[in-house]
Amino acid sequence: xxxxxxxxxxxxxxxxLWAVRVFKTRSAATTxxxxxxxxxxxxxxxxxxxxxxxxxxxxRISGFDRILIVRQTLxxxxxxxxxxVAAEDRTPPRDxxxxxxxxxxxxxxxxxxxxxxxDRLRGRDQGGEHSxx
Length: 133
What we know:
Elements: E1 11-12, H1 13-19, H2 26-34, E2 38-40, E3 43-44, E4 50-51, E5 56-61, E6 64-70, H3 80-86, E7 87-89, H4 96-100, H5 112-122
Antiparallel strand pairs: 1-4, 2-3, 2-5, 5-6, 6-7
């Protein structure tokens, strides 16, 4: 029985995404490919598309793009240390300001003071009442 997880050639993209632990199941990876959330070198791909060493993948997860470079091809799911070797993560850090605009569902409309604080956080103009004229 062959227990070597490393592939010698190209492998299916859905299988590789599952093997490097981007998705919990292969069917979730297949669904993401079908929905157009996976791009290989800038092009949308189907689940059966093959990846090879050096390819760039952009995966849309939870509203953010995750950028991965294929360093090794895998045929079996591996642990996190080996998965880190197989995929180089070039995802830029998330903007902490993006989460600042979220409000609790039952909080209602912001008060004038809260709105001004939100505007200040988002970097909007502080010109006053008639700043657009």
